């Protein structure tokens, strides 16, 4: 019997047992509903799997109905009574069991994409784990005597339950035993171009027939359908311009950084479903460069997730609160032994795929924006990391990054990021979309010259002072690196439209010592989260205090800042200071009323911005970087990153989060020379550097309208 036959037999046996579970009454009545509903879900996924294997074509209505069935339990309208909701699970099953069984239910939901990708062994593994947990409850009930401290009243009866620790142990060994499989596959799908599930859909489907969206196995909402339909309505030359700008940015990144693209063979495409018409053209462009695109689905397993962040291809999803509730599911199993095991598996996987890793050129990312602001509910029932686990996660991230950089050196790769709106942005979606295309294709040469004029002023400074305008309390001093030879060196990179689209910023890595003061933004989106009245106070370049106004409870606000911005570090350095120059984007944002909905990719170009975490050059500080005028950008290190030479564990934080002060909240930016004399860069929210005056035209237009 070959391996596939063994897998199929395991799968069929587990399905047969799950059908029996559906009809049994062998567990305590308070848990019967959980096991019955979960069994129903697994049986439904099994039916979908058989349907997919049969090759039967579904009508659009059938596609929509099947997609709704698969995801309806965790949709917002049903989530209040879903076992995927830790609060509901705890209410029905008790604190310890509720968390554990809600986690298991979330893991089992990963079967959906496995069914679409024909990953039968993964389905069998998850089903066997479900059965193993179920058996603990049936054995406890059959024993007729509660294990110590575990009996409880269940109506008129006494319910006999397994120890919660027994359930936790089964789940621990599920993630630990199968970590080698899950993590190795995760590494492989990010490197191996022979995995073509998504690529085949994109390249071979009739994209005018929107049924293709349902072949990915993701939740498909009106948003994905409307995006795909709109792209289908655009002229060929418009979509071609979108794709060309995107792929040319990636190529220019190698050119600007003087890296050899011809030595590479693959590129990772990350995007949100609905953009397939553009992505198909991008695939053609990359192939013309000698790069075969990779498509890796955003992680669906807890072992592979990154605190709720998505990296790969994905849909907007059925419910952001569900994803938020499960962001720290790893708290249920994370310990040093598991961390060490996963690190070892990662190292082994990269060694196995080292040839593919050497060919990897980097990621090409399409971001979206315009979604309604997400203000999460912090639930006490959701798993939460202990301080010890937070430390383990940070250590794990650092160890993983070190492994990745060994096989994919940072100074041999590049990237590009571009952004487009989704229909949720509002009634003027189509107008906004076309305007964003215009912003993404602004004149490279013109911006290069204006930004150089700003750099020429900043390079005379020992430090820069930034002050907020009316209603903004920002008051910061940023210290710059001393320049040894101003004819050959610069402190600021002239960032035009290559890796970071659109054009519009000059940036540096500040000296931490002496960098201090308050950063304040009244309203800003960071990832999926809308922060109100965000405040970070710096001392010697490190975050010392922080808060936001999202919650009436100040401590809840601090928790959100620590999670989303500090990435669970106690503090982070200011890794970047930049002056955004894309006043055209600012005018568009104000004209359409979308300032607060713009992604950081565009928002960071609309005022000064500050990144907390690593510098823009992390893991590649020793690789020279040059501006278009030939000057070397020398501010690539700070007091943290330079520690890589003596203690690598203290050099990097493996995060970089940008925070922008929009022009309308900005007062002054002043370059201060060593002797204390001041040179204006921005005065009262308007550019004051000679040669950059044209940047004020869009600002003045906004002021008059």
Structure characterization notes:
- The strands form five sheets. The chain has an eight-stranded antiparallel β-sheet. Strands 3, 4, 5, 6 and 7 form a five-stranded parallel β-sheet that branches.
- The protein is built from 23 helices and 22 strands.
- The model is unreliable at 145-158 (pLDDT under 50).
- β1 (152-154) and β2 (157-159) form a beta hairpin.
- α2 packs parallel to α6.
- It is α+β, with helices and mostly antiparallel strands and 705 residues long.
- The protein is 43% helix and 17% strand.
- The chain folds into three domains: 3-151 and 162-174, no CATH class; 188-416, no CATH class; 443-704, no CATH class.
- The longest helix has 26 residues, at 29-54.
In spatial order, strands of the major sheet run 15-14-13-9-8-20-21-22
As for the number of domains, it is 3
Strand content: 15-25%
Q: What is the approximate shape? A: globular
Low-confidence stretches: 145-158
The gyration radius over C-alpha positions equals: 27 Å
Mean pLDDT: 92
Secondary structure: number of strands: 22
Task: Give me the secondary-structure category.
Answer: alpha+beta
Query: Approximately how much helix is present in the residues?
Result: 40-55%
**Separation of the first and last Cα atoms:** 75 Å
- Please identify the oligomeric state: single chain
Helix tally equals: 23
**Largest beta-sheet details:** 8 strands, antiparallel
